[in-house]
């Protein structure tokens, strides 16, 4: 459902890679498999979140639904939220194939999703928050704060720049991607920095802290990849 005031950022318009295209959704898992071990990522994340059969999880930018499917096995309900119908179709097909009935697929985004179920024990956003410019990241974090139960966890995995030599880190990352997946992966990485909205780690920290999150851990890898484990605190 679209709910856009005249000044609201239109999160249904894709910047950079167009995940609204079925062709992108089709190649997504294979392409990301060239530089990520998604199964291992999900296992480590879910071990740490330590959800129980009563828990609710909201995954923003759920993509092809691998995290949603893995989480649904240990949760009461997973809300898989994405602005791309093509990605949601892949996620739904996965859930059906795996016989999972406790995932709600929501065609919505960080800025217009309305959470109506029980408050979430955890909210996750893996490689999705960078689709919003910084001001709108802040609005999204304020909304997520309201969706989380007291003491709930927010997990963010994203491409984030550090002070020092960010342009060098980007060049190194592009070449690493080229080594792993040739020109298509290198071009995706270049497009990411040219057209999407990755930001500095200190901006991310400021946004998180100002919107009521205590950062428990900030983990960096490969120069530009970051993971934030955060706890909701009272505002
Ligand atoms: C790079 S994919 C990440 C998919 C998955 N979370 C993963 O870790 O592989 C980014 C996803 O975020 C979605 N997306 C983009 N803007 C969004 C927004 N404002 N709200 C929710 N999802 C969004 C895209 O449609 C796409 O499916």
TrEMBL record:
Coiled coil: none annotated. The keyword Ligase does not apply. It comes from the Bacteria. Residues 58-152 form the Methyltransferase domain. InterPro entries: Methyltransf_25, SAM-dependent_MTases_sf. PANTHER family: TRANS-ACONITATE 2-METHYLTRANSFERASE, TRANS-ACONITATE 2-METHYLTRANSFERASE-RELATED. This is Class I SAM-dependent methyltransferase. It comes from Pelagicoccus albus.
């Amino acid at each position: 459902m679209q709910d856009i005031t005249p000044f609201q950022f239109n999160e249904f318009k894709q910047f950079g890679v167009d995940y609204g295209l079925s062709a992108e959704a089709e190649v997504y898992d294979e392409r990301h498999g060239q530089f990520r071990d998604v199964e291992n990522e999900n296992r480590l994340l879910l071990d740490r979140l330590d959800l129980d059969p009563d828990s609710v999880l909201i995954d923003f930018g759920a993509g092809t639904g691998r995290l949603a499917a893995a989480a649904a096995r240990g949760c009461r309900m997973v809300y898989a939220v994405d602005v791309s119908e093509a990605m949601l179709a892949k996620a739904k097909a996965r859930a059906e194939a795996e016989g999972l009935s406790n995932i709600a697929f929501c065609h919505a985004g960080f800025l217009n999703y309305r959470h109506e179920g029980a408050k979430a024990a955890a909210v996750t956003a893996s490689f999705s928050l960078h689709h919003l410019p910084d001001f709108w990241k802040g609005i999204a974090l304020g909304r997520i704060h309201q969706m989380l139960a007291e003491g709930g966890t927010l997990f963010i995995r994203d491409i984030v720049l550090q002070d020092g030599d960010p342009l060098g880190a980007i060049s190194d990352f592009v070449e690493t991607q080229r080594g792993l997946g040739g020109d298509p992966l290198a071009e995706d990485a270049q497009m990411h920095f040219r057209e999407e909205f990755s930001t500095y780690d200190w901006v991310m920290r400021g946004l998180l802290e100002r919107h009521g999150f205590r950062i428990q851990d900030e983990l960096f890898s490969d120069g530009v990849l970051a993971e934030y484990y955060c706890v909701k605190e009272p505002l």
